[in-house]
Design goal:
The chain is mainly α. It has three helices and no strands. The chain starts with 13 loop residues before the first helix and ends in a 6-residue tail after the last helix.
């Protein structure tokens, strides 16, 4: 039997996961840029750069929300496809 999901179709949480990955990556770059002067003995960056490092946590949370949304939709679809699931 063929799989009913097409390979190019996007699940409901996929956009959140991708957006979270991009935000996480930006936060990782900001963290590297912020920490680099401490190891190189240069003048530290302003305080707001440390705030940009928090984008890693925000990206992680956004991607986690996308995974939870995808799981919730999958469970809902599985419940609807189960025999005797009509209420």
């Amino acid at each position: 039997m063929r799989d009913k999901t097409q390979t190019n179709s996007a699940a409901p949480g996929d956009r959140l996961i991708r957006a979270g990955a991009v935000v996480f990556f930006l936060g990782a770059v900001a963290t590297l840029v912020t920490v680099a002067p401490l190891f190189l003995g240069a003048k530290p960056f302003p305080t707001y750069m440390f705030g940009l490092s928090m984008l890693m946590a925000v990206g992680f949370l956004v991607a986690g929300a996308g995974v939870l949304r995808s799981v919730a939709v999958g469970r809902r679809q599985a419940r609807g496809a189960a025999p005797g699931a009509s209420r």
